[in-house]
């Protein structure tokens, strides 16, 4: 087992810059998730770590060993791909045994290891079957068993669950995570699914356009997004964003949105005074705006705004309400099932302790 360091990785394909200067430290035994939209460079980054692709610039280190130009087989990595890359003409047993056979591991040792991996993935009773006799989830388990059977120093997974149906994905999510905890292999897991990232990652690296925007624990990424991109990418429904002008009164900092104002605590004056008179981007998550009659008892300070119900989505566990305040449509996420008439008036309360403020020019977080 080993830690993985990426230093200044750049990868171009013709005019496309797929990876644009990535630095990342993955700790020994850590489960890190690369999360980002389609085309942001996740697969390319993973392939560079695997040795399937050479970077144009930068270095890849496994511990103290510079592996940048080593071929995959000399790196002791395993990769699980999106499509279940199991060989259709081989029984499950032989699929799992294959990487060991290539390494010329003795037969009885292969047998032990295949049984160990099959046991971990709960596919022991399937070892004699062919892939076409398996379900999608079982096939993906075979792929994972084949990846771990060599006891790799680094396990790389590229959207391994995206071909599975929603229910199975949730089940496999926790199984992969538990397996990783058991064998403690350093794991780099690629996904564009934020829920997968939040539930599986010890830490998440949020990527956008070939760069890492933020690295942190799931709660850090959710509570303290570094910029507008991360704030908008994590959370469903998406965070509400709107422009506001800042002015400072003697005991508070005020965000003037136009048809309503948000008065923030005076301890924020110090941070916000440099932006007085300027336009900033304000962000608040749907779960931090409440109907007036449903303000949680733990909430300290709110700003109340009157609006008209514009749209309602009743999901059973939650109710999503879109409220038109005049200049903005604000989206609320309310726990439980509630009924609201479209077109009716609703007074909503914005939780002032949950407000995010970003610079308008760089979109970086101020608070
Ligand atoms: N072999 C290649 N030749 C040319 N361009 C490529 C190649 N591989 C990737 N790219 C481009 O590099 C960029 C990053 O691709 P990459 O596959 O790493 O994205 P990704 O984040 O994995 O996306 P997805 O979520 O859709 O899988 C894209 O613009 C892609 O078109
Ligand atoms: Mg990809």
Give a short overview.
This protein is an alpha+beta fold.
Structure description:
This protein is of the alpha+beta class and 367 residues long. The chain has nine helices and 20 strands. Strands 6-7-8-3-9-10 form a six-stranded mixed β-sheet, sandwiched between helices. Strand 9 and strand 10 form a beta hairpin. Magnesium ion binds next to helix 1.
Fold topology:
Blueprint: E1 4-13, E2 16-26, E3 31-35, H1 42-50, E4 57-62, E5 65-66, E6 77-80, H2 92-102, H3 107-120, H4 136-148, E7 154-158, H5 166-183, E8 186-191, H6 194-200, E9 203-208, E10 211-216, H7 218-223, H8 228-233, E11 240-249, E12 252-256, E13 261-264, H9 269-272, E14 279-284, E15 289-291, E16 302-314, E17 318-324, E18 329-335, E19 345-351, E20 356-359
Parallel strand pairs: 3-8, 3-9, 6-7, 7-8
Antiparallel strand pairs: 1-2, 1-4, 4-5, 9-10, 11-12, 11-14, 12-13, 14-20, 15-19, 16-17, 16-19, 17-18
Bound molecules: adenosine-5'-triphosphate and magnesium ion.
Magnesium ion binds next to helix 1.
Evaluate the radius of gyration: 25 Å
Examine the coordinates and then state which fold CATH places here, giving the name of the CATH topology of the largest domain. Rossmann fold
Mean pLDDT: 95
CATH superfamily heading of the largest domain: P-loop containing nucleotide triphosphate hydrolases
Q: What's the shape?
A: elongated
Low-confidence stretches: none
Number of strands: 20
Q: How many helices does DSSP assign? A: 9
Task: Please trace the helix and strand order, writing H or E for each element.
Answer: EEEHEEEHHHEHEHEEHHEEEHEEEEEEE
Strands of the widest sheet, in order across it, are 6-7-8-3-9-10
User: How many domains in all?
Assistant: 2
**Helicity range of the residues?**
10-25%
Oligomer: single chain
Architecture (CATH level 2) name of the largest domain: 3-Layer(aba) Sandwich
**Class computed from helices, strands and strand pairing:** alpha+beta
Distance between the termini: 38 Å
């Amino acid at each position: 087992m080993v830690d993985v360091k990426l230093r200044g990785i750049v990868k171009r394909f013709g005019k496309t810059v797929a990876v644009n200067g990535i630095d990342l430290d993955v700790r020994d035994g850590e489960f890190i998730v690369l999360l980002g939209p389609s085309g942001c460079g996740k697969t390319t980054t993973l392939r560079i770590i695997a040795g399937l692709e050479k970077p144009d610039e930068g270095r890849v280190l496994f511990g103290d060993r510079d592996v940048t130009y080593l071929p995959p087989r000399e790196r002791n990595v395993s990769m699980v791909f999106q499509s279940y890359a199991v060989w259709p003409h081989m029984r499950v047993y032989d699929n799992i045994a294959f990487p060991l056979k290539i390494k010329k591991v003795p037969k009885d040792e292969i047998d032990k290891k295949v049984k160990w991996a099959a046991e971990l993935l709960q596919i022991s009773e399937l070892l004699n079957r062919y892939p076409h006799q398996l379900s999608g989830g079982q096939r993906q388990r075979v792929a994972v068993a084949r990846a771990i059977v060599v006891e790799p120093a680094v396990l790389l997974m590229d959207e391994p669950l995206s071909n599975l149906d929603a229910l199975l994905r949730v089940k496999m999510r926790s199984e992969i995570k538990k397996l990783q905890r058991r064998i403690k292999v350093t794991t780099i897991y690629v996904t564009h699914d934020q829920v997968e990232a939040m539930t599986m990652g010890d830490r998440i690296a949020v990527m956008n356009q070939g760069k890492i925007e933020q690295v942190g624990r799931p709660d850090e990424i959710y509570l303290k997004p570094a910029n507008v991109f991360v704030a908008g990418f994590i959370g469903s429904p998406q965070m509400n964003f709107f422009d506001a002008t800042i002015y400072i009164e003697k005991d508070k900092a005020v965000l003037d949105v136009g048809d309503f104002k948000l008065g923030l605590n005076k301890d924020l004056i110090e941070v916000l005074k440099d932006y007085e008179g300027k336009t900033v981007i304000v962000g608040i998550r749907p779960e931090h705006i409440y109907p007036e009659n449903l303000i949680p008892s733990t909430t300290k300070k709110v700003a109340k705004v009157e609006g008209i119900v514009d749209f309602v989505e009743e999901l059973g566990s939650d109710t999503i309400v879109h409220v038109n305040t005049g200049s903005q449509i604000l989206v609320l996420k309310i726990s439980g099932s509630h009924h609201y008439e479209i077109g009716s008036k609703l007074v909503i309360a914005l939780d002032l302790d949950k407000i995010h403020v970003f610079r308008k020019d760089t979109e970086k977080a101020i608070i």
